Each structure stands twice: as C-alpha cells, then as structure tokens.
C-alpha cells in the first residue's frame, strides 16, 4: 500500500481515530499481503497492488469503482448519537465519496433508527431520500441484494413485494436488482430446471420495469451437477457428467432475462474445493475451475463483480481467509485483464469480515484500503 501524509491524515481525521491506531491498522493489513500461489488452474504470484500505479491504463475506470454496503454495514447500522464516526446512510455515502468511490451496491435499506430518515428506507419516500444523498455525493447505485420470492409459483403477496422493490430500484436509479443467494442449493438437474423457470418469470417482470435481474453466487453453485449414474434410494442421480451447477443454469437461461454477479473470492474457493467429480462410469475425473474463463465464455451475463481478496489457508476447508481488497493473493490484475470489457463490468469491493467489535472504524478504514488498491490496478 502507498500512503502519503496528507491522505492518511485526512482519512484518520474523517474517521475520528488517533494516528497511532491508524498506522497500526495499516501495518497489520499490510502484513496479510503475503506472496503465495493462487490455488487453481494457472498458479501465479500476486503482484503488489500499488506497483505500476500511474503506468498503463487503469483496469477499473474511475466511474466503475464501487463497494457493496454490506462491507460497512456496522457503520450504516450504528447510532449516530453515540459516536463521532460516520453513521447511517447519508454520512457513510459522504465518507465513501471522499475515498473516491463512485458506485455502491445496496444490501438492504435498513439503518439505525436515529440516523436521518429513520430505521427503514424500504419505501418510496425512503428511496427518494437515498437517491438525493447519492446524488449529493456523486454516487450511483448499481444494484441491491434484495427481495426474491421464495415460493414458486409466486403468491400474490410475494409478487407485490417484488414489484415494490422494482419501484424502489427505479427511484434509486439502479440498472440491476438481485439477491445474495444462489437460484437453488440443490445438486440436481431437475431443481435447477425449476429455478430457471422461476428466474425467467422474475426476469421478465424486471425487464418490463427496465432492470436486469441478477443472482449472486457463492462456492456451492460451482460444484458439480449430479445428473446420472446409479440412482440413490430416493431415485436421485449420484454421479456427474462434469458440468458445474451454475454452468448448467447459464446454459438454460435466457441472457436477456437473467444475469449474474460473480463473487471472485467465492469463485476461487470453489476452484480450491471442487476439483474432481465421480463420472457416470464411476471413475474419478479432474476438472479445475477457471473463474475468469467462465466469465469470458458468458461475458455479457456478468455486469457486476464482488472484488474480495484472500490469503491462502489450507486448514479452513475453503483454501483462503478473507482480507482487505488488494492485500491478498488473488490475482485481480490477471482476472480483470482476461475478462476485459472494462467499461461494462462494475466491480464492488467487498469484505465480509470488515466490521470489528474492538475497532469501530475498521470497516471504513478497510473500505479506503480497498478503494486505493482497486484504483491502483494497471495493465
């Protein structure tokens, strides 16, 4: 990480923390940036994220640098009457804009009751407030992890709620509306077929409202589809042809109705976890997942990314521990170079574990680190 005295002091003062604690936080974060191989089809060494800043062109243009607000959910949810730290949507928007962000992705519309606007802004009036605060700070909202009906066929109540969220999305100026979950948690083809029918129906409603409907996926969606071989005692297949669940979903859904958001961290976890499968004939086959390859084969299906980083940990079952963006070993320079279309994709910095119980300013500190490292990516 590159720091200058002026920018560090501005950040420290805006967060209301002492210089000693700010420097110790940055030192601890930098210590996580170990040079270790990315676990996958093409092992590489992660380059220092500040290296090359000012050379070449930015892999993520300035107007495409975003953050999902889940990263700073503690700041949005804390009581502004009990702290000098930024609290609630309006103050957090102001702080994120100071860091340089130009885009945000919502993870719901709730905040602390004492913040301007009150506890819930999940309404037409609340959306108008949020839109005004976004505009005041030069921010654009790109998406939201919001309501997707669980029932299929849909109930009238679920459809009404879904349409309310579409109305809120249009007020906010969203181009996309989605969810933080997979279309189904099943490993079976028949269930993914049902999920495709459901998402086609929702996608058509969203399209009529001028929005693209997207699903955000975790590692499980990249596991192998069970689609053949001997049946179990419930009549379900037990072996695979080697097709990954989400690849199948992509192949059977209409690209004009259903889009996706790749969480690059979880895609790399899947690369670590799901390397072999049992074929229909009972043999063990190897197939290492290539996240960037999936995107390049379905490029216009991926308008959004979660840019989340990790360091190698082969003892936790995932292969990685989450760290602030740009301080880990996931090679984002190569990833963004391979997927291209830099004026189409919208990467959102995310760190699930950014909030801290001992350092209330940590999530915003890590948001600042994430912005600097996203902006430093060059080709």
Summarize the structure.
Helices cover 37% and strands 16% of the residues. By secondary structure, the protein is of the alpha/beta class. It comes from Streptomyces bingchenggensis (strain BCW-1).
Architecture overview:
- The structure is a single chain.
- This protein is 37% helix and 16% strand.
- Helix 7 (189-208) crosses helix 8 (245-252).
- The chain is α/β, with parallel strands linked by helices and 379 residues long.
- The chain contains twelve helices and 14 strands.
- The protein has a single domain (5-376), classed as Divalent-metal-dependent TIM barrel enzymes (TIM Barrel, Alpha-Beta Barrel), CATH 3.20.20.
- It is globular.
- Mean pLDDT is 89; it is low at 1-5 and 20-53.
- An eight-stranded parallel beta sheet has the order 3-2-1-14-11-8-5-4.
Which labels suit this protein?
globular; 379 residues; disordered N terminus; 12 helices; TIM Barrel; alpha/beta; 16% strand; 37% helix; single chain; two-stranded antiparallel ribbon
How do the strands and helices of this protein lay out in sequence?
Blueprint: H1 5-15, H2 19-31, E1 66-68, H3 73-77, H4 88-99, E2 103-106, H5 124-136, E3 140-144, H6 156-172, E4 176-179, H7 189-208, E5 212-217, E6 228-231, E7 237-239, H8 245-252, E8 258-263, H9 264-273, E9 276-278, E10 284-286, H10 291-297, E11 304-307, E12 309-313, E13 319-323, H11 332-339, E14 346-349, H12 362-376
Parallel strand pairs: 1-2, 1-14, 2-3, 4-5, 5-8, 8-11, 11-14
Antiparallel strand pairs: 6-7, 9-10, 12-13
Helix pairs in contact: 5-6, 7-8, 10-11
Transmembrane segments: 21-40
Protein name: Xylose isomerase-like TIM barrel domain-containing protein
Pfam families: AP_endonuc_2
């Amino acid at each position: 990480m590159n720091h200058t005295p002026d920018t560090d002091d501005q950040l420290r003062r805006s967060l209301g923390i002492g210089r000693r604690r700010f420097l110790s936080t940055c030192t601890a974060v930098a210590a996580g940036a170990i040079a270790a191989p990315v676990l996958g089809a093409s092992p590489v060494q992660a380059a220092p994220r500040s290296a090359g800043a000012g050379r070449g062109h930015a892999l993520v243009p300035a107007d495409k640098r975003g953050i999902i607000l889940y990263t700073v959910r503690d700041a949005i949810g804390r009581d502004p009457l009990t702290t000098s730290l930024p609290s609630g949507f309006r103050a957090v928007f102001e702080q994120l804009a100071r860091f340089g962000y130009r885009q945000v992705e919502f993870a719901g519309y709730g905040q602390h009751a004492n913040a301007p606007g009150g506890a819930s802004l999940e309404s037409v009036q609340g959306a108008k407030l949020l839109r005004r605060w976004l505009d005041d700070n030069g921010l654009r909202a790109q998406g939201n992890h919001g309501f997707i009906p669980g029932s299929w066929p849909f109930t009238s109540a679920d459809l009404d709620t879904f349409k309310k969220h579409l109305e809120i999305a249009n007020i906010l100026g969203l181009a996309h509306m989605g969810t933080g979950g997979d279309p189904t948690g099943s490993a079976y083809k028949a269930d993914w077929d049902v999920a495709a029918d459901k998402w086609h129906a929702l996608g058509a409603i969203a399209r009529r409202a001028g929005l693209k409907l997207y699903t955000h996926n975790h590692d499980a969606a990249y596991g192998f589809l069970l689609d053949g071989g001997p049946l179990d005692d419930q009549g379900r297949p037990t072996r695979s042809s080697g097709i990954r669940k989400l690849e199948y979903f992509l192949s059977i859904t209409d690209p004009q109705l259903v889009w996706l958001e790749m969480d690059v961290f979880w895609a790399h976890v899947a690369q670590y976890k799901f390397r072999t499968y049992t074929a229909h004939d009972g043999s063990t086959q190897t197939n290492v997942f290539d996240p960037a390859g999936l995107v390049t084969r379905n490029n216009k299906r991926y308008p959004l990314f979660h840019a989340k980083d990790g360091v190698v940990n082969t003892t936790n079952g995932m292969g990685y521990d989450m760290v602030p963006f740009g301080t880990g070993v996931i090679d984002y320079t190569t990833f963004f170079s391979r997927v291209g279309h830099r004026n189409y994709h919208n990467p959102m910095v995310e760190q699930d574990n950014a909030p801290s119980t001992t350092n209330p300013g940590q999530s915003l500190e890590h948001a600042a680190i994430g912005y600097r490292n996203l902006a430093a990516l060059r080709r």
